[in-house]
Amino acid sequence: MECGPVKQREMYHLIAELLNTIDIAVCIFDDQDRTVVWNSTFFTFFPEHDGNLFAGEHYRDNLRRFYRSRLVGEECQNIERYIDEGVERHRRQARPFVFSHRGRLLRVASLPLPNGDRIRIWQNLKPAPHASAEPSDWTDFPIDLLEYLADGAMILDRD
What we know:
Layout (H helix, E strand, L loop, with lengths): L4 H16 L3 E6 L5 E4 L1 H6 L13 H12 L8 H14 L4 E5 L2 E9 L5 E7 L35
Antiparallel strand pairs: 1-2, 1-5, 3-4, 4-5
Helix pairs in contact: 3-4
């Protein structure tokens, strides 16, 4: 079923609102990597974008804000390379990956849509503070090793 740009945008907004109800962040980009639609959960996960994100903003600018909120010291000199690599990952991503941001462990998935647009969704994997961890004797590791490993790393539990 074909639908015009207006109907398509309405459908995107409905999807964004539906994902809000289950605490999934979404951002949809057009075929030129410009922001089209996002939901309020996106700002919960990425508060650096709240009040700054706008329709038509290029993904590069989105990534620049993201990295400015994360990078410290000498890492800052690599921001343009990180942005370039991030845009390429965005365009090619076909499998979910996990990263940490502002105390959350987020899984992100992204796929192209039939019209050339691209949808990205984020799910918070870190349990709520009151939830019990399994196994019961597990304690948090002092650093997030995933921040220092290349793509393709695998971590296994005791079993």
